[in-house]
Amino acid sequence: MPAVLNTNAASLYAAKSLQNAQSKMANSVERLSSGLRINRASDDAAGLGISQALTSQINGANQGVRNLNDGISLVQTAEGAIGAAQEMAQRILALATQGANGTMGNSERNAIRSEMRQLMTAIDGIGSRSKFAGVTLFTASTAIDLQASNVSTDKVTVSAASLALIGCGTSGGSYSAIGSVYTGGSTTGIALITRINELADDSLTAAKMLSISADATSYIGALNTQRSALGAIQNQIEFTVSNVQELSSNITAARSNVQDTDYASETANLTKGQILQQAATAMLAQANQMPNVILSLLK
C-alpha cells in the first residue's frame, strides 16, 4: 500500500467496522430491553407478518373466551328462571291433588284455584323479567349466538327452543276471567291456565282438579325438557371454552417463538459486539496515526 496523506484507507475500514459493531450493539440492546426480537419491519419482515397474524388470532380467541363465559352466565340465568317456574308448577300440582280429595268442598276448591291463579301470574312475571344485559331471554323465536373467536362462523348457539316462552301469556284474557282464551305463552302453560279457569266457581269438582293435575304434570315436563336443553348447551359452551383457551395458549407459544428475544443468544451477541466495538475503536486510533510515517520521510 502506498504511503499517501489525503486518503487513509485503513482509517476508513476501521471506522466502517466500528459503525457496524455499534449498529449491532444497538440492535442487541433494543432487543434485550424490549424483550422482542422484532421491533420493526426491517428486523424480520416475514416474521412481523406472521406475528401480527398470530396476534389477531390470539386476541380473537381471548375475547371469544369472555364471550362464552358471558354465555354461560346467560344460560344459568335462564335455567334459574325455569327452575323457579317449576317450583311454582309443582305447587299447583300439589294444590290440584289436594283439591281432588273428597273432603274438599266448593269453597275450599275456589280458594285453591285462587292460589293457582296467583302462581300462574308469578310464573308470567318470571318470564317477562328474565333478561341478561337487556336481552330478553324467553322469546320463543330468537336464538342467541355466542361468538367463540374472530372467525365469523365460529359460534355456539343458544337455540330458540331452549329459550321458549315459559309463562302462559295474558294477551287473550285475564286469569280471573272464566273461559278466557290465552295467547302469547307456552303451549302447556296456556293449557294449564285454561284448565284452571274453564269452569265457573260453583262447578269445581274432584275430576276438574285431577284434570288440572294432569295439565300441571305436562307443564312441568315441558319445563324440564327446556331446562335439560339449557344444561346441554352449557356443557357445550364449557367444553368450547376449554378448547379455545388451549388454542390461545398454543398460538401464544408459537408467536413467542417468532417475535420474542432469545436472551441467551442475544446476550452473547451483545458481548461479541462490545468486544468488536472496543477492537474497532483501538484499530481506528492506530489507523489515524499511520499518516505520521510521512513526517519521518519528510525529515
Short description:
The protein is mostly helical. Helix content is 68%, strand content 4%. It has 2 domains: 9-35 and 261-298; 49-241, f41 fragment of flagellin, N-terminal domain.
Structural write-up:
- This protein is mostly helical and 299 residues long.
- The chain is built from seven helices and four strands.
- Strands 1-2 form a two-stranded antiparallel ribbon.
- β1 and β2 form a beta hairpin.
- The model has no long low-confidence stretch (mean pLDDT 87).
Question: Which structural traits does this protein have?
Answer:
299 residues, mainly alpha, f41 fragment of flagellin, N-terminal domain, two-stranded antiparallel sheet
CATH topology of the largest domain: f41 fragment of flagellin, N-terminal domain
Rg measurement, Å: 40 Å
Number of domains: 2
Classification by helices and strands? mainly alpha
Q: What is the architecture of the largest domain at the second tier of CATH?
A: Up-down Bundle
Residue stretches low in confidence (pLDDT < 50, at least 5 long) are: none
Shape: rod-shaped
Number of strands: 4
Question: Strand count, sense and closure of the main sheet?
Answer: 2 strands, antiparallel
Enumerate how many helices there are, as a single number: 7
Spatial order of the strands in the main sheet? Answer: 1-2
**What is the CATH C level class of the largest domain, in words?**
Mainly Alpha
Strand content: under 5%
The separation of the N and C termini measures 21 Å
